[in-house]
Amino acid sequence: MIKPWKQDTIILHTQRLLRSYQYWTGETLLDVQGTPEAVAKALFYAPFVLVSHGIEPDPILNYGNQKALELWELTWEELTQMPSRKTAEPMVQEARNRLLAETEAKGFVRNYQGVRISSSRKRFLIQDVLIWNLLDEDNQRCGQAAVSSQYTFL
């Protein structure tokens, strides 16, 4: 299997992630220069957890960097076929849905924290999370992403 960050669709998605983050926050998610592929590789191996999902009725994860794959204990193939709601336990779905709706309305939300669950049922608290709307090349909403560098296993 080709490395995720070498795939044309992921290289394009990486550009959307970075551009949308800067659009909403005025900040740079990752200070990296180089070819689009080099930037995609740097983001994939960045020292923070980064995930995103699309805009399907039950949104499917469409990106997770190496830290995210390790945290949720998933392969790329497993992660990118999973509804994003499955990253959290059923009892916190209502709060998660409110957060995503707030993000959709405001563009981004800072300082979120919540309990998530890995594929082997390990629970962990993600902290200092920033969630933002992803925009395509026409500035149309095409998903949401979340980044965090703080998490604690419970």
Automatic annotation (TrEMBL):
Residues 13-153 form the MEKHLA domain. Pfam families: MEKHLA. This is MEKHLA domain protein.
